[in-house]
Amino acid sequence: MPEEKKLEKKTIDPTTLELLNICAADGINTVFDRAEALKACPIGSTAACCHSCFMGPCRLTGKTEVGLCGATRATVTARNYARAVAGGAAAHSDHGRDMALTLLAACEGHAPDYKIKDEAKLMAVAKMLGVKTEGRSMEEIGKDVALVALDNFSSTKKELDYIKRAPAKRQQIWKNLGITPRGIDREVVEVLHRTTMGVDQDAEHIMDHAMRASLTDGWGGSMLGTDISDVLFGTPGPVKGRANFGVLSTDEVNVIIHGHHPTLSMMIVEAASDPEIVAYAKSKGAKGVNLAGICCTANEILMRHGVPLLGNFLTQELAMVTGAVEAMVVDIQCVMEGLVEVAKKYHTQIISTSPKAKIAGSTYIEFDEEHALKIAKDILKKAIDNYPNRKNVRIPTYVDNLVAGFSHEYINYMLGGSFRQSFRPLIDNIANGRIRGAAGVVGCNNARVLPHDDNQTYIVKEMIKNDILVVTTGCNAIACAKQGLLTPEVMNLAGPGLREICQTIGIPPVIHMGSCVDNSRILTVLAQCATEGGLGEDMSDAPAVGFAPEWMSEKAVSIGTYVVASGVNTWMIGHNPYSNSPEVVKLMTEGYTKKVGAALHFEPDLKKAVKDAIAVIDAKRAALKLDPYDPNRYARSDTYFPADYTSFKAFAEGRYTRSGT
Ligand code: XCC
Q1: Which residues pair with 510 in a beta bridge?
Q2: What is the rounded distance in angstroms from the CA atom of residue 327 to the CA atom of residue 245?
Q3: Would 181 disulfide with which of 215, 395, 446, 575, CB 3.0-4.6 Å?
């Protein structure tokens, strides 16, 4: 097959395709090439490999039913699954812990560049955490909030404070199962202990604890991370933004922020417009500094400052190929080691910053909260110094507009104004069938799930077409942004009922709620809807589903598990990494459904997943005795042609022909 045709099968995004063609011409090896050259290990990819001890590794394939110690396929598979959950929960939660430490440092005067930006949010969080507020300064309250948050990590017996946010019925389910999460560190450590050689030898028991550990992510580390970020940097409200590689500038210093932590990236945003930095950029012949983001740090700075999204996980190496990126500043998580090799061929400097994540071959500038703004400026100066080294600049022209910034607080406000903040209009319109249900579509890209961004956008478009409101985070949100799905105009792709509601309320049918830790915002919305009443008493009663269309990270396994443990059926699309044990697959689906009212599906068939998910939504509606969904009942809403696209038909079919950029 000619190279160009081969590349067309790798992505639906024209920009990514354009850059992959440049890579081919320049002889650049990317994750797309490595995925072709290196096949997935057939043993590990079904969780058939046990390396809990060093008598192995044992491969439980073919006729081999047990390892040297006698561990069965089910035990080994459950252990592998639980360890993935622990890895993911640890990553999100350690991020949350760092946010608490930053808040503590800010309130104690050790991090002078950070301030409490959202006092109302601080008061709400304080109330939730049982911190006294009366007659106290913001710093005193903030310090205690940080200390209580940190206690949620280290406590061994106390249950997580945020469990109180869940509906009473859900809390009772966890209690009855004995999976109410205690200290975050304890539950994660306990996964590692139970799954070490010769400890927990019952797949079901291991998987129950996997749920408990995942809950420390969703209702612990992630939720604390989100809330404290809001306190320090402001709770997001609607913001206009742009996405895709056309956001790079030809005459400014382009600095890409990649990773997850908002602490450094927020400082870089502040520093980029500092007169000292702008003057320094001018002294090197540039007009200023242009920022853009990759992965979840991109979502953090988009949600609060409208900083453009450059791309999602699979496009990180391609940023440098443009020849227009002076520095890529990385912190933690989802940073490919391959970046450094690509950077060697261009002028980009990879600047690593986290003491937890050193990257060989990168320039290391250690970040610490005490000198945050100064370090951010130092980083930008390094990037600016690199501007004169630009040579062959090839910036693709595609840019898409978007609206982001939908925190649960804003959605609450949006639905009733400050006079009557409530989820009631959303609940009522789900009850009356204008909105059939809701879907959380989240998660990564995966170099083995190609074309890149295809599953992501397919599911989102299928959902809204079927009158199902979509909330999105993470790399799915970036995929949606790059394909123009985060604009109000996309309501033309929505079914008539959903479209009418979107037109009335003035929201897009695909709502960007933030980064991956912000999946906790989705939990909060669901919990508040259940508490408000009208869609049952528990999160599992609501006609809502979850999808991770192109997931690849342990963090996604943790998210999928806590969403299921919170009562929401979830589909992880792609190959089933736990297929070596039908018993474990049954425990994740039928077993979890009996215990927590929802199943975790690892489903290779995308269309089947969509069909099954819609059937679940309809079954939940029936169980609530709501009117059956009828697409023709509310077919009176206005339709109009989206201005940005040359052909509505082409857009709907996924051929992204645009009239201009
Ligand atoms: Fe996945 Fe979470 Fe990473 Fe993107 S950034 S690749 S974990 S979706 Ni959050």
Answers
A1: 470
A2: 15
A3: 215
For ligand 1, say whether the CB of 548 is within 6 Å of any of its atoms: no
Can you tell me the distance from the alpha carbon of 47 to that of 644, in angstroms, rounded to the nearest whole number? 46
* Token pair of 181 as six digits: 């999460």
Select from 265, 257, 536, 512 the least CA-distant residue to 406.
Answer: 512
Whether the CB of 477 sits within 6 Å of ligand 1: no
**Integer Cα distance of 483 and 455 in angstroms:** 12
Q: Mean pLDDT across the stretch 418-445?
A: 88
Beta-bridge mates of residue 293 = 257, 309
Q: What is the Cα–Cα distance from 264 to 258, expressed in whole angstroms?
A: 11
- What pLDDT does 648 receive? 45
What are the residues facing 239 on neighbouring strands? 404
Does the beta carbon of 261 sit less than 6 angstroms from any atom of ligand 1? Answer: no
Q: Token digits for 575? A: 């190959």
Residue 417: what pLDDT? Answer: 64
166, two tokens: 């869940």
Instruction: Count Cα atoms within 13 angstroms, Cβ side, for 293.
Output: 35
State the average pLDDT for the chain: 93
Residue 294 alpha carbon to ligand 1 centre in Å:
10
One-letter amino acid identity for 447? A
Is the distance from the beta carbon of residue 296 to the nearest atom of ligand 1 less than 6 Å? Answer: yes
CA of 333 to the centre of ligand 1 (A): 8
If you take atom 6 of ligand 1, which residue's CA is the nearest one? 444
Whether the pLDDT of residue 650 is over 60: the answer is: no
Contact 600, 560 (CB under 8 A): yes
The alpha carbon of residue 77 and the mean position of all alpha carbons in its chain are separated, in whole angstroms, by: 26
Instruction: Give the residue whose CA is nearest to atom 5 of ligand 1.
Output: 295
Between the CA atoms of 560, 566, 569 and 573, what dihedral angle is there, to the nearest 10 degrees?
-10
